[in-house]
Amino acid sequence: MRTLLLEIGVEEIPARFIEPAKEGLSRLLHESLSSSRIPFGTIETLSTPRRLTAFVHDVAERQEEMVTVKFGPPHNRAFDESGNPTKAAAGFARSQGVAVEELKKGRKDGIDFVVVEKTEGGAETAMILPGLLKDVVGRIPFQKRMRWGSESFEFARPIQWILVLYGRESIEIGIADVKSSNTTFGHRFLSNGPITINDPSEYVDTLRANSVIINETERMAIIEQGIAAIEKEVRGKAIRDMDLIREILYITEYPYPLKGGFDPAFLTIPKEVLVDVMKSHQRYIPVLDGNGALMPYFICFANTIPADDMVVVKGNEKVLRARLADAEFFFEEDKKTSLSDLYERLSTIVFHVKLGTLKDKTDRLTGICRYLCHVLGYNDTPKMEKAARIAKADLLTHMVGELPELQGVMGRIYAKDQGEDDEVALSIEEHYLPSSGSSALPVTDLGAIIAVADKIDSLVSFFSVGISPTGNLDPFALRRQTLGIIKIAIDRKLHIPLDELIRTAYAGGDKIAKRLSFEETKALVTDFIVARFKFSMIDEGRNQEFVESVLPLVSADIYDGYLRLMALESQKSVEDFQRLMIGFKRAYNITKQVADEHDVDTSLFREKEEQTLFEVYEGNKEMFFSTMDRRRYDEAIAILVSFKEGIDRYFDKVFVMDKDEGIKNNRLALLKKIRDMFLIYGDFSKIRIE
User: Fold this and answer.
1) Which residues contact 331 (CB under 8 A, 6 or more apart)?
2) How far apart are CA 193 and CA 173, in angstroms?
3) Which of 132-146, 499-513, 570-584 has the lowest mean pLDDT?
4) Helices (H), strands (E): how many in the chain?
5) What are the residue ranges of helices labelled H in 241-338?
6) How far apart are CA 421 and CA 426, in angstroms?
7) Per the omega criterion (within 30 degrees of 0), is the bond before 158 cis?
């Protein structure tokens, strides 16, 4: 067994590319070695911005042997009654390059055949690796790929060197005019010339000695220690945004912590602006005091050991000072214009060429909000109309123009500064939520209403003009916005008739040149929302069959379908529920073709089990429908479970398809009523029986 070491040296790879590339490299190595029948142990991938590295431990030195079986004619045709080979046996043996004596008997589909077993010897791993690794490197996934020079080969960034060691043996491969060797390179500034690696076990320590911390865990520990030391020095607490810290991790090979500062006068700028400028634009880590207020310090990381720390610090402070001065100017200028005044100017910004301006979208948004206020019982219509009118106004401010990621946030800040109601101000920020699958949700009723209205408007408007996500392409984030509607409805417990919500959004787009009719649009949008609900619930670990059983209800009311799913989920471990499903499936299957409604005639009962099951139905139906109307779904499920014994005994003792047509139809009518009762709750036919 040997260790395989692969290092791909490149020009700096963008930080966001690295983790998916590592995962892809590990997966491709696993798949390729497995399909090549090369036994191996664990795979470890490491990286810095200048290199992708993989260790494959305990790699066998040869492929495993493979036995193949070739089937020939049936055995009774290949050999006569005396056991002598026939022409069929001789011809098959000749075609396989073996003697007749080497033919064996094999069985397939209950028939004996003559077979030839061939053992394919395993080739040496060192002979297979060049082609295997070249294929793997070419298929590493990146969000964007590039070519360089005259090469047709594509990679995230130009490849500078390749190191491949199989134990102490250097494996030669050629990719993009780069030949592999057993040499690597250290830190761009803190190391000189090529470095020879004689054995994979030397690699990590040798790079560390040349100022490259290849192990991310070790590099992250250095970053954390640097942050902690500066926190202690300034007696503050760093804002640990893990996305930012992971970005620092992947833009450094040797992270070196530095403390910088800025003029405390800039602290009059809103905290959100200061934090955004430092984090998003400079990759600085802001620092808070014990009361959560921003301190005039920041933490940054150099990717080298500076000759003079202060020279680097002063350079970073100079850049930040210029950015904060701009932000201060924008903030003061923006305060001179009210958000209400900016509403009319929204007509100067095109939302989408087919969907009109931002003012058009705002007007559509207001109409949908009116409907939602009516449905959800939000009675302060003037407050809603005020909030909806200015929800998009901050997009015209200088600050959001410079820092677009602060949309909504600046709207809230400016609205508060201009004396707007707290809920109105907060709803401006909240209507963009959730901004990602795991981000915060609106906490105010008004914020939730405007958020749902904004998202359903985008969804319906785009679908109505024939624009929808295809494959991996979703340029208008319609999947994310749909998931936002689902999450808000569930979190805020909102019962919204989906059909009417889509109708309201479609009708509000009277200025849009639609390609699809309302019915076509509604069908597509509903299916899209239902599909997002299904995938999101399964991703959360919900039982897939239970999810599918409530999807018809989700298409009418998202939260109602969710409540039914939760009640079903509570039954997962109940044995009675599984037995109930067996009985339901029998009733469902036997009544599939029964379409007409018939009353049940008790005078036609011939078995006591018929009377018993009918009494269970009659005694429970009103309570069941009442609990369903009140959305007491746990109680409704309990009522259905109470049918279990009666259904079991019914099918044990009663022959439904009696030769007497009247008796048969009467029995089918009873089963159909029970079936339909179950289907009112959900499509239980989707639930498999274990």
Assistant:
1) 269, 270, 273, 399
2) 22
3) 570-584
4) 27, 18
5) 242-249, 271-276, 282, 309-334
6) 9
7) no
H or E segment and range at residue 73: strand 66-74
Question: What span, in angstroms and rounded, lies between the C-alpha atoms of 176 and 153?
Answer: 6
Q: 10 Å Cβ neighbour count for 239?
A: 17
In angstroms, the CA 158 to CA 13 distance is: 9
Look-up of token digits 């960034």? 157
Q: Give the mean model confidence (pLDDT) for residues 178-199.
A: 94
What ranges in 79-156 are assigned the alpha helix state H? 87-96, 125-138
Question: Is the distance from CB of 453 to CB of 372 less than 8 angstroms?
Answer: yes
Residue 554's beta-bridge partner residues? none
pLDDT digits (tens, 9 = 90+) for 469-526: 988 889 999 999 999 999 999 999 999 999 999 999 999 999 999 999 999 999 999 9
Q: Which two tokens stand for residue 186?
A: 């250290």
- How far is 568 from 630, CA to CA, in rounded Å? 17
My answer on whether omega of the bond before 475 falls inside 30° of 0, hence cis, is: no
One-letter amino acid at 223 equals: I
Tell how strand 350-352 and strand 356-357 pair up: antiparallel
Tell me the CA distances in angstroms from 505 to 367, 480, 553, one per residue in order.
Answer: 8, 18, 21
Q: Is 493 left (phi over 0), alpha (psi -120 to 50) or beta?
A: left
Residue listed under structure tokens 């014990």 = 290
* Residues 319-348 pLDDT 10s: 999 999 999 999 999 999 999 999 999 999
Q: In terms of pLDDT, which residue wins out, 82 or 497? A: 497
pLDDT range class, residue 435, cuts 50, 70, 90: confident
DSSP characters over 12-56: PPPHHHHHHHHHHHHHHHHHHHHHTT-----EEEEEETTEEEEEE
CB 233 within 8 A of CB 259: yes
Taking residue 49's Cβ as centre, other Cβ atoms within 10 Å add up to 20
Cα separation, 380 vs 446, whole angstroms: 9
How far is 506 from 456, CA to CA, in rounded Å? 9
Rounding to the nearest 10 degrees, give the CA dihedral for residues 524, 529, 531, 532. Answer: 140
pLDDT of residue 386: 95
d(CA 576, CA 615): 20
In angstroms, the CA 528 to CA 530 distance is 5
> What pTM, to 2 d.p., does this model score?
0.81
DSSP readout, 383-429? HHHHHHHHTTGGGGSHHHHH-GGGTTHHHHHHHHHTT--HHHHHHHH
Q: Token pair for residue 248?
A: 């620092």
d(CA 266, CA 259): 18
